[in-house]
Amino acid sequence: MKEILQTIIEGLVENKEAIQINQVDGERSIVFEVKVAEKDMGRVIGKEGRIAKAIRTIFKAVAAKEQKKVTIEFID
């Protein structure tokens, strides 16, 4: 799943080298902590958080197949 998230984020940002994704695994949950360059944060979150919400929705669907809960946190 981390590779899918990496690909999505790379398509949104200008500074691809600044992308950092940390994966924290739990028994039934996975937390992804996403860091991007400060000027790219707006691109990843989108107007009123629409892009961030869409990314979270995609990952909820993927995680449901694996019977896990996924949380994506965007850290500045």
Q: Residue ranges: pLDDT <50 for 5 or more in a row? A: none
SSE topology string: HEEHHE
* CATH class bucket: Alpha Beta
Q: Give the mean pLDDT.
A: 93
Q: Over all CA atoms, what is the radius of gyration?
A: 12 Å
Give me the CATH superfamily.
K homology (KH) domain
User: Which sheet architecture does the biggest sheet show?
Assistant: 3 strands, mixed
Indicate the structural class: alpha+beta
Explain what the structure shows.
The chain is an alpha+beta fold. It has one domain (2-75): K homology (KH) domain (GMP Synthetase, Chain A, domain 3). 42% of the residues lie in helices and 26% in strands. It contains three helices and three strands. The protein has a three-stranded mixed beta sheet, covered by helices on one side. It is globular. The model has no long low-confidence stretch (mean pLDDT 93).
